[in-house]
Amino acid sequence: MITLLPTFRLSRPSTLEDAFAGLADDGIAYVGGTELVAAMQLGLISPPHLVDLKQVGDLTGIREEDGLLAIGATTRHADVAGSELVRAQAPILARACSLLGNARVRATGTVGGNLCFADPRSDVSTALFALDADVRLRSAQGVRTLSIEEFILGAMDVDLDDGEILETVLVPPPTGAQHYLRHQPTEYPTAAIALVQRPEGLRVTVGAIGERPQAFDVEGLDAVEEAVAGMLEELDVIEDLNGSEDYKRHLAGVFVRRAAAALKESIDG
Amino acid sequence: MDDAPDNETVISTRINGRRINRRIENRLTLAEFLREKEGLRGTKVSCESQVCGACTVLVGGEPVSSCTVLAVEADQAEVTTIEGLGTPAGLDPVQAAFADCTALQCGYCTPGFVMATKALLSRNPDPTREEIEHELEGNLCRCTGYLPIIEAVQQAAARIAGTYDPHAAHRPYAGHLKEDGEPYRYVGRPVERVDARVKVTGQARFAIDIPFPDTAYAVAARSDRAHATILGIDTLAALDVPGVIAVVTGEDLEGLYPRFGHMVPDHAIIAIGKVRYYGEPVALVVADSRHAAYDATRLIKVRYEDLPAAMDADAALAPGAPMIHEDTYSGDTVSLVKVVRSTDNPNVANTIDLGWGDVEAGFAEADLVVKTETYHPALYAFAMEPYNSSARFVDDVLEITSTAQHPFMVIKDVARVFDLPHSKVRLTVPFIGGGYGSKSYTKVEPLAAVGAWASGRPVKLDLSIEESIYTTRADAARTTVRSAFRSDGTLLARDIDIVLDTGAYVDNSNTVLSKATARCFGPYAIPNLRVRGRLVYTNTVPASSYRALGAFQVNLAAETNMDQAAEQLGIDPAEIRRMNLVPRGERFMEGKRPMDTDLVEDFDELMALLRIEPHDGVLQAVGFGVGANEGGAYPTSTAQVKMSPDGSALVLSGSTEMGQGSRSVLTQIAAEELGLDIARVRVFQSDSSGTSFERTTGGSRTTTMTGLAVQRACRDIVTQLLSMAATNWECAVEDVSHVGDRIVHADGRSEEFGPIIKKWYGAGGGEITGRGTVRREGELQMQPSFWEIGMVGVALDIDPETGVTKVDQLVTVADVGFAINPVGVEGQDLGAAVQGIGGGLTEELVYEGSQLRNPNLVEYRVPHINDAPRRFDSVIMERRDGTGPYGAKGVGEGARIPMGGAIAAAVARATGVWPTSLPLTPERVWNLIQEGRRRQDEHPV
After folding, report:
1. Which residues in chain B touch residue A41, judged by CB atoms under 8 angstroms apart?
2. Min Cα separation B861/chain A (Å)
3. In chain B, which residues have their Cβ closer than 8 Å to the Cβ of A38?
4. Which of A181, B383, B547, B756 could be stapled to A259 by a disulfide with Cβ–Cβ 3.0 to 4.6 Å?
5. Contact B138 A101 (CB under 8 A)
6. A37 chain-B contacts, CB cut-off 8 A
7. Torsions phi, psi of B275, nearest 5?
C-alpha cells in the first residue's frame, strides 16, 4: 500500500550492442520512467534489471529519413512537441505531445516508453494511428518494421519480443490538413480524436476510449456527420470511473463532430 | 569507475550549484535522495503518482516529479531544488510574488509550485491565464483555491520583466478605527503572512520533515479483508529481514490500553482478534530503514476467516446484518457528546433526536409539503501532507511529533494507552500540511508510539496518501427532508432523517452527527421541528471531521428542499430564503445563541453580485445557498505572552498552524495590543510541554477563542508593565498609561517596555509573563460563541453535449464581524468554496467490493488549477458584532457548507431535473440533461 521500490540492478549502456546484452541479462528497457517506475511503485512489476537506454545515441533525436519523419524512441514528449520538423510534418503528433500528462511527464517521458507501455489512453498512439506511422524494432538478431496497428495489440500489450527494443517511430509525409482534439475532465483523456485528410478521404481516429485507438476512413469532411452513427456502433469502449459505455460512445460522437467542425473551420478560415 | 555493488550506482551531480559524488541505491527516488540523504527537505512528497507536483524539482532546468524519478537521474546533471532559489531575506522573484499574493496557506504545495513556475516562466516569460493553467495543471493546491497562485505567477512574470508596480498590486482596503478615532495599526488590514517567507523558500518544517535523531522507521501491514477474524499472524519471515528491529501485532499490546478514540475508545491501535475494514493495520514493522520495514511487511502472513461485511449503511441497518462491534465500550466512554447505542441494531453507534413544537400540526396546516432525499458520498479531505508521526521515550516521557490539529486532545488518548500522566506525554506539532478537520483528533500517534515502545527506538511513521485515504474519510450521509410550507413560502415545519456512515470506527463522527442534526434545518426560523440522526458502523474506512463537518452533507438536502418548494410555489428561490432566514436576535434553536447577524442583508449582497455572463454554446444557470455552523467549538482557550527585557514578545499558544493563517492573526493581535511592530512579536504554537493549553484547532475558532486568550494575555502584560513603571518611577499606577510601544507618565516622561523590565528587576533584567484565559462565561456563556455563516452563489456553464460543468462565477460572503486579516478571510472563503467545487463536481470515494476503487489522486479527482472559478467575488461583512477580539467571528468552514447545494441547484435549473446526489460528474449531468429533455418531450410547457 505504500510505494517504495524493490531493489534492482541498473545498467546504462551507450551502445546498442551493450543494450542488447543488458536486456539479455534479465533486463527491461528503461528511459523516462514515468510509466515503468510508477508501475514498479505500485507493485505491478518488479524487474530485476533496468537497462537505461538514454545514453544510446542512436535511439534519440528527430530527423528526416528517406522522406519519412523519424523520431528516436527515447525522444522526450516535450522535444517532440517543440520540434519544428514535427510541427511541420505531423502537427497532430506535436499537439498530442504538448497536451499529454503534465509538464513534468512531458519533460521526462518518452515517445518510445509511452508506446511500449500501450496505455489505452495514450495520446501518442492515437496520433500515430491517425498518421499511419510505422515503428522500427531492433534486436541483436536484426530489425523489423511494423505498422503502429500491428505493434499495439491491445491495452498494455505490444508486439515486442524479448531482447527487442523500439528503436524509431517513422511517420509518413503529411497527406493533408490535420486536427487533434482531446477531452480530459480528469487525469487522463476520456476521448481523443485525430483527423487526418488523405487523398482518398478523411481518416478519423478515436483514441482513449477503447483498448487501443480505432481508425475509421470516411470520404471526406462533409461525410463525417453521416458516418458518425456507424462509427459509434463499431466502437470498442472501456467503462471506468469516467463513464459508462453508452456515455463514452456518445462522447466519441460529440468530439468527432467537434473535431470535424474545427478542421473545416481551419481549412475554410 | 562504477565499482558499486549490483543494486547501487555511483553518481556525480550538482545540487543547487554544489558538486557532490555519492554511491546510492538504484531504488532510491530523487525525492528520497534529496530529502533523506542530502537533508533538502524543502521538496515535498504527497500523491506519489505524478499528479500533485509537490515534489517538483528541476533537473537540467526541466521540471520532474522527484517522487517517481530515480535518484540516479541526477548523475551528470544539474539539480535545482527550492533551497537553490532565494532565502527569506533575499527572495527569488517567483517566491516574492507567491508571498506577496498570499498564494499559499499550509505551504506544503508551495515549493513544487514555485519550481514549476520557474520552469514555466523560463520558457514563457509572459503567460496568459490559459497558459498558466495548462503548465500548472500538474500541481495541486488544496488550500488556496488557485486564484492567488495565478495572480502570483503573473506578478512573478512582471517582476522578472521589470514591469511590476507594487502600488497597483492589490485591492485597497480601508481599515478600521478604534473607539477613540485612531486607526488600528496591525489588525483590520492585510498583512503578509508571517510564515510566507519560510514557506516560499522551503524552510518551513512539517512533521514529516522532522525525524528524531537515530530514528527507526515503521511501516504497517494492512488488512486485505473488509471484515474477518484473525486466526493467526506469522511474523517470522519479516523478523528475518536484515534491519528489522521489531514486529508488533495486536496480541503484543497486552498490558497497554490497546485502543483509542476520544469519544468512544473503539479503535484498535493494531487489529485485535478481527479486522473491520480493508486497510486496517494488522501489524507494524519497525526497522532501520523505511525500505527494510516495507520489504518486511510484505512477508507477514495473516490467516483470516472471512466474515460477512456491511459495506454501506443500508447493509449495516438491514435485518441480520453482521455485527461489526461486539463491545459497546460503555465503561470507557469519555465523550462530551452523549452516546446512545440503539437497542434494535448493534451497528447503530449513536442516535440523536432533536426538535420542538408540534410537527404534525405544522404539516396539517401546510399548503405544500415538499420531500427531498439526497445522498452525499464519502469524501477524502486530501490534506497534502499525509498523516505521519514520530515517537520516542526519553526519561520516562513519551515525545511525539505529529500532524495533529488538536495536540492536547491526542495526549489524552495516548496517555491512556501507556497509563502515563498527561504531563509525561509531550506532543509537538510543527507546520501542518493542510488539515481541514481531517487531522482532528488521534490518527497515527498511538501506532508510532507503540512502535517506539516495542522497539526501544525513536520511530518515524509516514503514511502514503493511499494509506491516509485508508485512515480517515468524511462520513457519507443519506438525508431525507420533509418540509411544510404555507403558500406564501413560510416554513411551518420540518421533519428530517439523517443516516451517517461512520465506517469501522467512530472517531469524531459523534460530533459529525450532532452537527448534522443541528445544521440540517437552518438558518431558518422553524416553529416545528423533528430531526432523527443515526450513526452507523460499516466495514469501510473510519469517518470523521472534514471542514464544515456534518453540515455540508445535510445542507444539500435542506437547501435543495427550499429550492424545490420555491419552484413548486412559483416563488423566487431568493425570496423564499429571505422570508425564512432567522432575523438578528431571534433564537432559532432552543438553548442556543440567538442569530448574531443580519442574514438578509448578507444575502442581498450575495445576490447583487451573482450574475450570468452570457457564453455561447453552454447551458447557464445560477445556484446559491445558505448555511450556518455553530462556530468556535467549546470556548476553552489559554495563552501566555512572555516579554523579554529587550521588549520583544513571545506568544505561546497550543493552537496549530495548518495553513489557515492563525499564526499571522495571533501575531497581529499581539502587535496591536502591545503596540509592537510585527517583527518584534513571535507566535510559538503547539508544543504541549512549552505552550499553554488549547482545546482544539477546529470549528473556525482560533481567531476568536485563541485570539481572545492572546488579547487577554497581552493586556495582562500591559497591566504588569504599568505597575512596574509606577514602581520604577515611584508614582501611582494611575499616573502612567500605555501609548504605542511605550509606557507614558502623566508628566510627559516615557519609556519603552524593555528598559522598564530591566530597571524593575535590576541587574540584567528578567522576564514577565502575561496570561490569558477563555472559559464559558460572560459573553461566551451562551453557545455557540458565534454563528459561522455560509453563503455562496455560483454561475455555471454546462456543456450540453458532454455534461462538463464549469464554475464561471463564485460569490462568497464572509460574515466575520471584523476581518483581522482581510486577505486571510478571503483566502479561507475561496479555499473552502473550491473544496466545495470538488465535492460538488468530482469528488467521491467509490467502493468496489471490499476495497476502494479510487484510493489515489489519479482517480479521486480534487480540483485542479483549471477548475478554479473564472470570476470570483468575495464579500466581507464587518459589523463588529462577534464575540472575538475587536468584534471578530471565525471563518474557514462557512463557504464549504452550501456549495454542494448551490451547484446542484444551478445544475437543476440548467437541466430541468433536480439531482439527488453528488458529485455532479459530467456523465451524471449529461444524464440529467437527457432526463430533462425526455420530460420536456412528454410534458411540453
Report:
1. 48, 68
2. 7
3. 49-50, 68
4. A181
5. yes
6. 29, 68-70
7. -105, 145
Give the nearest chain B residue to A248 (CA atoms): B923
Contacts of B470 in chain A (CB under 8 A): 1
Q: Is A48 on the interface with B (CB under 8 A)?
A: no
Please provide the average confidence, as pLDDT, over all residues in chain A: 96
Q: Choose the closest CB to A4 out of B68, B290, B859.
A: B290
CB proximity A46 to B under 8 Å: no
Pairwise CA distance, residues B882 & B596, whole Å:
8
Of the candidates B53, B17, B55, B49, the residue with the CA atom closest to the CA atom of residue B33: B55
For chain B, positions 116-145, list CB contacts with chain A under 8 A.
116, 119-120, 135-138
Chain A residues in contact with B926 by the CB 8 A cut-off are: 247, 250
Find residue B751's DSSP bridge partners: B743
State the Cα–Cα distance between residues B90 and B43, nearest whole angstrom.
19
pLDDT tens digits, A226-257:
999 999 999 999 999 999 999 999 999 999 99
Taking every pair of Cα atoms in chain A, the longest distance, rounded to a whole number of angstroms, is: 57
In the numeric block, which cell numbers belong to residue B787? 454563528
Chain B contacts in chain A segment 182-211 (CB below 8 A): 183, 185-188
CA distance B456 to B449: 10
C-alpha cell at B52: 500533485
Q: Are B809 and B873 in contact (CB under 8 A)?
A: yes
Could you check whether the bond before residue B919 is cis, i.e. omega within 30 degrees of 0? yes
pLDDT, tens digit, 9 for 90 and up, residues B895-906? 999 999 999 999
The three-class DSSP label of residue A29 is: strand
Cβ pair B53:A104 closer than 8 A: yes
Rounded to 5 degrees, what angle do the CA atoms B801, B802, B806 make? 110
d(CA B314, CA B295): 39
Q: CB of B94 within 8 A of CB of B118? A: yes
Q: Which of residues 813-872 of B touch A (CB under 8 A)?
A: 842, 846, 853-854, 857-859, 861
Span B912-929, pLDDT tens digits: 999 999 999 999 999 999
Q: State the Cα–Cα distance between residues A25 and A149, nearest whole angstrom.
A: 29
**B835: phi then psi, degrees, rounded to nearest 5:** -60, -35
Q: Give Cα A42 to chain centroid, integer Å.
A: 22
DSSP letter at A4 equals P
What letter does residue B595 receive in the DSSP assignment?
P
3-class DSSP state for residue B112?
Answer: helix
Residue B212 burial (CB count, 10 A) = 18
Q: Which of B806, B786, B799 lies closest to B889 in space, CA to CA?
A: B786
Whether pLDDT at B340 is above 70? no
Strands B649-653 and B847-848, by their bridges, are: unpaired
Pairing of strands B368-376, B476-485: antiparallel
Q: What is the pTM of this model?
A: 0.97
ipTM: 0.97
Which amino acid type is present at position B667? T
Distance of alpha carbon B251 from alpha carbon B270, whole angstroms:
9
> Computed from CA positions of residues B536, B249, B238, B41, in that sequence, does the dihedral angle turn out positive or negative?
positive
Torsion of CA B174, B175, B178, B180, to 10 degrees: -40
Say whether B7 and A3 touch across the interface (CB within 8 A): no
Distance CA(B625)–CA(B602), nearest Å, equals 12
What gap in Å lies between CA A57 and CA B63, rounded to an integer?
A: 23
CB B432 within 8 A of CB B206: yes
Q: Which three cell numbers stand for residue A49?
A: 534489471
Asked if B456 contacts B430 with a C-beta cutoff of 8 angstroms, the reply is: no
**Can you tell me which residue has the cell 557532490?**
B20
Strands B397-402, B388-394: pairing kind: antiparallel
Closest CA to B145 of B897, B867, B806: B867
Q: Which residue on chain B is closest to A43 by alpha carbon?
A: B298
